[in-house]
Structures are given as C-alpha cells and as structure tokens.
Amino acid sequence: MKDYDGSDLGPDVEPASGFAAVPDAFQRLWVPYRIAYIQSNAEKAPEAHECPFCIAPTLSDDEALIVARGTHGYVLLNLYPYNSGHLLVCPYRHVATYDEATDEETAEIASLTQTAMRVLTQTAHCQGFNIGMNQGRIAGAGIAEHLHQHVVPRWELDANFFPIVAGTKAIPRLLGEVRDEIAAAWPSDH
Questions:
Q1: Over 117-180, what HEC string results?
Q2: Which domains does the chain have, with CATH numbers?
Q3: Among residues 137, 167, 163, which one has the least CA distance to residue 24?
Q4: What is the pLDDT of residues 112-146, one digit of tens each?
Q5: CA gap 75, 71 in Å, rounded
Q6: Which residues are catalytic?
Q7: Of 58, 20, 24, 65, which is closest to residue 41 (Cα–Cα)?
Q8: pLDDT tens-digit series, residues 55-102
C-alpha cells in the first residue's frame, strides 16, 4: 500500500486518504510532542471548584511554573501564553478584584511586575509589554475568582498570520525552559 507521497506504508498501515472526514472550520496545527505535556499535567489539573492560583504556591516551583515568590504574592508562567514568557503576578490571598487587595499586596504586585519587566527584557530581549488585569468574567478574566496581572512580552515581529488567518498562536519555546531561564535571572533580593 502506498501513501500520498508514494512511499510504501507496509502491510499493517492503511493510507489516510481512505479515512472518512467531514470538512469543518477548524485549522489544525499537528504537534504530537505536546502529548507528554498534556498527559503529565492531567494528573495535576485542579478540580473545577479549586483555584489554580491557590494551588500553585503549594507545589514546587518547577511543577507550578513559579519563577519568583514574594511575601504577599508570586510570579508564574501562564499555562496558556499569548507569547513566550507570558507571566502572571498573583497575590497568595484568594481575592477576586484589585480593590479587595491590601496595600501590601498591591505594592508587591507592582514591585514584582517591575522586576518581571526587567528580567524579561534581559532574558527575552523583548521590545515592549502588555500589562493588565481583567476584572470579572464579563471583562475577560479566565479565572475571575483570583486576582492576577498579566505581563506579556512583545516584539516587533511577534504578530504573524497564524492568529489572524488560522486562529492559531505559535509559541516557539517550551514552558519549562522559559521558567528555568526567568527564575535563574530573577534577582535574589526580590
């Protein structure tokens, strides 16, 4: 049996050309190496009623992708990044909105955000940032119950046709690799 390119498939393999398929609107970017990541995180995934930002500090920094811990807050990589190095700055305390945070929490969130910008500039050589908080589900917060600030590094050429045309975002680096690099560059006095 032969495949599309004319190569021999062997006796136990059937060609994909014979599979039933119904065309749909989804574009697929095949990344089979991600199955190891998906399977390893399935066991660690919080229950629907558990807050991942409350669970993260109870795990090791490697497991939770935490790059730095402070007194009132911590910094971790976003599991679903917009760009490589997309960080989240969270208070330890479970509060939903910025106005519920204490003065100490807001001061440390601000300080950790500044340090995150410096470290990302040093390690990722980014040229700018998107920084912000989505307050409440209606405002776009994916996890509305726990305050978190996004620190997204940006580069002149980080936008391409994938998100616009294909509805796909290409992330060029693995999360663990980025976490190790940022954590190693994080100043010890913060």
A1: HHHHHHHHCCCEEEEECCCCHHHCCCCCCCCCEEEEEECCCCCCHHHHHHCCCCCCCCHHHHHH
A2: 51-185 (3.30.428.10)
A3: 167
A4: 999 999 999 999 999 999 999 999 989 988 899 99
A5: 11
A6: 148
A7: 65
A8: 999 999 999 999 999 999 999 999 888 888 999 999 999 999 999 999
